[in-house]
Design goal:
It is a single chain. The chain is an alpha+beta fold. Helix content is 20%, strand content 35%. The protein is built from 4 helices and 15 strands. The strands form 4 sheets. Strands 2-3-7-6-5-8 form a 6-stranded antiparallel beta barrel. A 4-stranded antiparallel β-sheet has the order 9-10-15-14, covered by helices on one side. It has a 3-stranded antiparallel β-sheet with strand order 11-12-13. Helix 1 packs across helix 2. The chain is globular.
Length: 263
Amino acid sequence: MTEQLYLDDDSVTAFDATVERALSDPPRVVLDRTHFYPTGGGQPHDTGALRATDGDRVWRVVDVEKRDTVYHALGTVEDAGGDGEPPGPPEPGTEVRGEIDADRRAAHSRYHTAQHLLSALLLAEFDAQTTGNQLYRDRARLDAAYDRFTDADLDRIEDRLNELVADARAVSSYTMDRETAEATLDTERTRIDLLPDSIEELRIVEIAGASEGDEPYDRTACAGTHVANTAEIGEVVVTGRETKGPDEERVRFALAEHVDGGE
């Protein structure tokens, strides 16, 4: 089973590993350890490259998927801006240097942390439980159990989100066994009930309260990547809403730099 290093430190974008398995059609490898994030929890996978440490062979990582373990799909050199086909998948035992596309990871981490803030805000101020979310490199959306958000609501949500960002609240994570978490944490906020029963150890992500000693503003079971401080998110713009069904609303948002006219 691949050691998922991003769960302990999601700021790392370069690491060393050893190939444990190599598969073809499509070409992909399993590493003994990885910082590449696999698609999951509404967050897209990382991309990047694997470089053999004993030569100049390079494989582009174009997809990452977690099933029984973590699989790194290898693309053609065109995917990295070159031409031709990549070398065959590295043999088991090959030592490689993993290089994650830092800009893509940073964007996903900023959006994922913003989604945590939005989920906590909607629950606290609108009693609206998050029912789903999806983030991308330049935008995101969140579905919530709510009748209908008005334009005034959206303005209020945007203002409050940016206040929370400007507060520069610390973001941290730790692990907890599921039994303890279910007995001691607010499951409505942490959403533990949505996780498969097979997950027995949880990674809990917290966004600090307004002052030292306060309860966390958000506490959620989550395996995604996040920034270390809400100030790193930057300005957030609520770009719109739509009705998704009876008593369900979708809120769309983006970082200011990704909105038309942004820098």
